Amino acid sequence: MDIIQTVHVIEVLENFLKKKRPPEEFRDRIDVGYRIQGESVFIMEIRPAWDDSGRIMEFENAKATYIKSRGHWKIYWKRADMKCMATNRIRQPKPLKNL
């Protein structure tokens, strides 16, 4: 992704988080965040480790990868075996903000 597209992705993700994050008083126990890595965006759950509340754990739940050659995003979800599986529910390419 180029700089302009990355800024757009950050804007979309910040708007998403405004709607989906838990209330402020619960965020030290559970929260939602994201990470951008190359052409992919990872949505994750953030929470303290069950056996050590001082250690923060991040659990990736979903991934969106931008396919430059097609000009759209491919969506993946994380299975229990920790492998990413493509979702087939989205048939038409859509802008990131509509996913």
**Fraction of residues in H or I helices:** 10-25%
Shape: globular
Order of helices and strands: HEEEEE
* Number of beta strands: 5
The whole-number mean of residue pLDDT values reads 86
Q: Please state roughly what percent of the residues sit in beta strands, choosing from under 5%, 5-15%, 15-25%, 25-35%, 35-45% or over 45%.
A: 35-45%
- Tell me the span between the first and last alpha carbons: 18 Å
> Helix/strand-derived class?
alpha+beta
Q: How many domains is the backbone divided into?
A: 1
Largest beta sheet: what is the strand line-up? 1-2-3-4-5
Name a few traits of the molecule.
99 residues; alpha+beta; 5 strands; globular
Walkthrough of the structure:
The protein has 99 residues and is of the alpha+beta class. The protein has one domain (3-98). Helix content is 18%, strand content 43%. The protein is built from one helix and five strands. Strands 1-2-3-4-5 form a five-stranded antiparallel β-sheet, with helices on one face. It is globular. 4% of the residues are buried. The mean pLDDT is 86.
Q: Could you write a compact summary of the structure shown?
A:
By secondary structure, this protein is α+β, with helices and mostly antiparallel strands.
Strand-helix topology:
Blueprint lengths: L2 H18 L10 E7 L2 E10 L2 E16 L4 E7 L5 E3 L13
Antiparallel strand pairs: 1-2, 2-3, 3-4, 4-5
